[in-house]
């Protein structure tokens, strides 16, 4: 499938779907030292070539805001207390707009994917964003069509703002067998 970058927006943070974590999984907030957990998870899903590159990116993006990570970064733990998934209820701006909420760096280690963990994680992250922002956005790509299906189910909508967007959403309508562009 052609890899086309896409952006999605949730215009409000009302009526956020909530899903329980299946046992023995649970969600918790970032704590000191979790940089390494983030690095391991993000590297495991192929976001970075190696853990050193991931740590450099973490430091660049979050290092000066690590105090905010305690309330904005979530981890899924397995029954042994090991971090196996993460996302960050962060912030950013679309175009020149004011700062809004952002679902950022969603990842679940491959051996735990397919265990109904993504929806509870996304719901928990949106609940965090609701404490700070009236709306949210995220960036993704057409190759993440399973995640896009979930984002659509959570009320995110396509943002048509760049060349190629319409091609991407048309492709996804076919792949997901669902009307997306209204």
From TrEMBL:
CDD domains with a match to the protein in the record: NAT_SF
Domain N-acetyltransferase: 25-182
Gene3D superfamilies given in the database record: 3.40.630.30
InterPro entries given in the database record: Acyl_CoA_acyltransferase, GNAT_dom
Protein name per UniProt: GNAT family N-acetyltransferase
Lineage, top ranks: Bacteria, Bacillati, Bacillota, Bacilli, Bacillales
């Amino acid at each position: 499938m052609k890899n086309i970058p896409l952006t999605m927006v949730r215009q409000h943070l009302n009526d956020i779907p909530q899903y329980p974590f299946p046992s023995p999984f649970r969600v918790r907030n970032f704590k000191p030292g979790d940089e390494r957990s983030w690095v391991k998870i993000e590297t495991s899903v192929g976001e970075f070539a190696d853990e050193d590159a991931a740590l450099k990116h973490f430091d660049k993006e979050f290092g000066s805001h690590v105090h905010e990570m305690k309330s904005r970064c979530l981890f899924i733990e397995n029954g042994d207390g090991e971090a196996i998934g993460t996302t960050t209820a962060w912030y950013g701006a679309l175009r020149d707009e004011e700062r809004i909420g952002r679902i950022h760096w969603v990842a679940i280690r491959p051996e735990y994917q397919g265990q109904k963990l993504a929806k509870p994680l996304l719901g928990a992250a949106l609940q965090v964003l609701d404490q700070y922002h009236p709306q949210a956005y995220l960036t993704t790509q057409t190759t993440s069509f399973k995640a896009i299906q979930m984002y659509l189910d959570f009320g995110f909508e396509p943002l048509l703002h760049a060349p190629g967007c319409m091609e991407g959403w048309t492709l996804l309508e076919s792949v997901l067998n669902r009307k997306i562009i209204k």
